[in-house]
Design brief:
mainly alpha; 8 helices
Length: 224
């Protein structure tokens, strides 16, 4: 009874495999976005300051926060068994990806600060850092999350379970036949009657004219 009460309604029920793959990808992308600013300096692939595990408020708002939000949204897609939770995780990941793209442009207006300058000697490496840290990562997260949102929002025919007939709580009363009194009573034939030939009806014997004449004389009154 408890499992039946806690189960989501039929319209919200969804197999967990629907958004599992997209959720795993979002978890990996979110972890990349949140950890690369702290691990990247070790591989000479970072923004200034180029120190391992260097914390700043701008990094927290522009990289750690959207990366954690994308990872949480992907985790919700992996464990979700109903549409509401799955769609919530996908929308959260979409917002995280959009913030990766637009956060750096809006940071001066919000007073968040700057994520720093890319440490690169060529324009090609600057472009690779920008794509890997912010714009490209955000676009990829938005694409995967939008795909997961479309899959979880659509209700497929296989998601609809056939209706089961209701089981009566008690014994079903048997309806008694109603007789009007005009029906002929049913006659059940015995096994002997089905095998034995039916007897032939005896024909009445014809009376001769002599016997009929005598009967008429007896019934007539005597003449006196």
């Amino acid at each position: 009874m408890k499992n039946a009460q806690n189960a989501p309604p039929a319209g919200r029920r969804m197999p967990r495999s629907r958004g599992a793959l997209s959720g795993v990808i979002l978890v990996l992308l979110g972890a990349w976005g949140a950890l690369i600013p702290f691990v990247g300096p070790h591989f000479n692939f970072a923004y200034a300051p180029d120190q391992d595990w260097a914390w700043s408020a701008a990094r927290g708002w522009l990289e750690v926060l959207p990366g954690a939000a994308a990872a949480v949204g992907g985790l919700l897609l992996v464990i979700a068994g109903n549409r509401v939770t799955a769609m919530l995780g996908a929308k959260l990941a979409v917002l995280a990806g959009a913030w990766f793209v637009l956060g750096g442009r809006l940071a001066p207006l919000l007073g968040i600060g700057s994520a720093g300058d890319p440490i690169a000697a060529t324009d090609r490496k600057r472009a690779v850092l920008e794509i890997s840290y912010f714009s490209g990562l955000g676009v990829l997260i938005v694409f995967v999350a939008g795909f997961a949102l479309a899959r979880t929002a659509v209700r497929l025919a296989r998601d609809v379970q056939p209706l089961q007939p209701l089981q009566p709580a008690g014994p079903v009363p048997v309806a008694r036949p109603y007789y009007t009194g005009l029906e002929e009573p049913s006659r059940e034939a015995s096994p002997e009657a089905l095998t034995a030939p039916a007897p032939r009806a005896e024909e009445p014997k014809s009376r001769g004219w002599r016997r009929r004449h005598n009967v008429t004389e007896v019934q007539a009154p005597a003449d006196r």
